[in-house]
Write a structure and sequence with these properties.
four-stranded mixed sheet; alpha/beta
Length: 227
């Protein structure tokens, strides 16, 4: 990660505080950054009651974080960065709510698999940033997130969409690095997200039949490239 730091992110608002979003938000909060986790249901109730229980290979601790039950509950302000970490089918309504309620429209960093979220952000007139997410994490119990990676906790490269870098990308990468991730601002982030997507095409079959999945890996990735 390189670049001159001039942009300062005042607060990260995580849209979708599950395994990935909760892990990233929790480690950012633990390293001293202001973080708001947007969650729902039992997870939201647990976060409000007890804070976020963040489990890593090194330790387990409760991280105090601000929480919101919806995008509309967040009092958006200059210096906020939205981190979109929902499943793709949930992203559209959240982005619509963001456009309708935010007094200051934040840039949106898409911590999502695939290539569709950034287009959804751009169609709504917001500034999209792509993030290649490679961080093993699970969320099985309300109020708890387990990050399985040690040092680093994962790889979170990002850049402007569809290409380029700027001060914000370098600032976010630096914050993520200080939080324990391997993070770089990349001008060709779309290329990196495409490569990650190709590795994902084998995932479902690995869960069902690992041996057969490895046999078909080449064919599946060739099909993905063609698509």
């Amino acid at each position: 990660m390189s670049g001159t730091r001039r942009y300062v992110v005042l607060r990260y608002v995580v849209l979708g505080a599950g395994a990935v979003g909760g892990g990233i938000g929790g480690l950012l909060a633990r390293s001293g950054h202001q973080v708001v986790l947007v969650a729902r249901g039992a997870h939201l109730a647990a976060l409000r009651a007890r804070g976020l229980t963040l489990m890593t290979p090194a330790r387990t601790q409760v991280v105090p974080v601000s929480v919101a039950g919806s995008v509309a509950e967040v009092r958006w302000r200059a210096g906020d960065v939205a981190l979109l970490a929902t499943k793709l089918q949930d992203a559209g309504p959240l982005l619509d709510e963001l456009v309708a309620t935010a007094r200051v429209a934040p840039p949106v960093v898409c911590a999502t698999n695939g290539l569709a979220a950034e287009r959804m952000v751009a169609r709504r007139g917001l500034a999209p940033y792509g993030m290649m997410v490679w961080t093993p994490a699970t969320h099985l119990v309300p109020g708890e997130v387990r990050v399985h990676g040690g040092e680093p906790a994962g790889v979170l490269d990002l850049g402007r969409w569809p290409e380029g870098t700027d001060e914000l990308a370098f600032a976010v990468a630096q914050d993520l690095t200080l939080a324990g991730f391997d993070a770089m601002a990349r001008a060709d982030i779309r290329r990196w997200k495409r490569a990650k997507l190709l590795t994902n095409v084998v995932g479902a079959m690995l869960a069902v039949d690992r041996e057969r999945a490895l046999e078909l890996k080449g064919a599946l990735m060739d099909e993905g490239r063609a698509v």
